[in-house]
Amino acid sequence: MRGLVMELETRYGAVRPGGRTARVRAAVLQAAGDALVEHGFDRLDLADVARRAEVGKTTVYRRWSTTTGLVADLLVDMAEQSTPRTDTGSLDEDLRANARLVVATLTDPRQGALFKAVIAAATCDERTAEALHRFYATRIEEWAGCVRAAIARGEVPGGTDAHEVIRAVSAPLYYRFLASGDPLDETVADRAAAGAATAARAGVYTV
Q1: Residue 166: CB partners within 8 Å, gap ≥ 6?
Q2: Would you call 207 helix, strand, or coil by DSSP?
Q3: Which domains does the chain show, CATH number per domain?
Q4: pLDDT score of 18
Q5: What is the pLDDT of residues 15-40, one digit of tens each?
Q6: Nearest-angstrom CA–CA distance, 156 and 206
Q7: Which among 15, 47, 189, 197 has the fewest CB atoms less than 10 Å away?
Q8: Which candidate, 164, 20, 181, places its Cα nearest to that of 106?
Q9: Given CA atoms 159, 136, 153, 97 in this order, what sign does their dihedral have?
Q10: What are the distances in angstroms from CA 30 to CA 39, 70, 123, 152, 161?
């Protein structure tokens, strides 16, 4: 996860400050998240964010420059706050924890709305899309560790694509979240995890 944070900071100039500057950043990112949840990316405005954060417009324009830069820094902040993967010693339990974390995030009133806004922004802005892709690529890589551990324990065949197993867990959950609108709960999460684990053990994801 730290690798993602450092890469995004380098790419988008989102260097994490300390002291009072850190408090300003936190206030601005909170305000940006609020604005995205309320109005979406197309109505995100740096002056409005500055007003919400109670900081000078010059500060916001100088540090973030554009709304896409601000969203990229927001993704850095989301990465910093992401829950690390579990390590239970069981693939089924690890994948279940992953699926439940995804569901908890997507069904959270603020986090779910924020992810929808960022995903929508990524569909029409290349810079935001790149930042979002890197965010998810790193989250998948982090959780892929539980599949590699399962390979080492002999739970799944050697040559299993760990990334594909993790994608198989979250894909049906994001489909419900973004497309079908069907309910998302722990039962759905557990079913997605069990399906991915069963397929992995059957060799579906071997390469």
Answers
A1: 95, 98, 140, 143, 144, 147, 196
A2: coil
A3: 2-79 (1.10.10.60), 84-201 (1.10.357.10)
A4: 55
A5: 455 577 889 999 999 999 999 999 88
A6: 9
A7: 47
A8: 181
A9: negative
A10: 14, 11, 22, 42, 37
Alpha-carbon radius of gyration of the chain: 19
SS3 content of the chain, % helix, strand, coil (to 5): 75, 0, 20
Contact between 115 and 139 (Cβ < 8 Å): no
* Residue in the block written with tokens 């994801």: 205
Q: In the block, which residue shows the tokens 């995205």? A: 36
pTM score? 0.82
By C-alpha distance, which of 111, 145, 135 is closest to 36? 111
Residue 166: both structure tokens together? 């993790």
Residue type, 207: V
Tokens found for residue 183: 């309910």
In contact, 121 and 37? CB cutoff 8 Å:
no
Beta strand segments in 35-180, E: none
Helix (H) or strand (E) holding 31: helix 19-39
User: Does residue 17 come out as left (phi exceeding 0), alpha (psi in the -120 to 50 range) or beta?
Assistant: beta
Q: Is the pLDDT of residue 2 over 70?
A: no
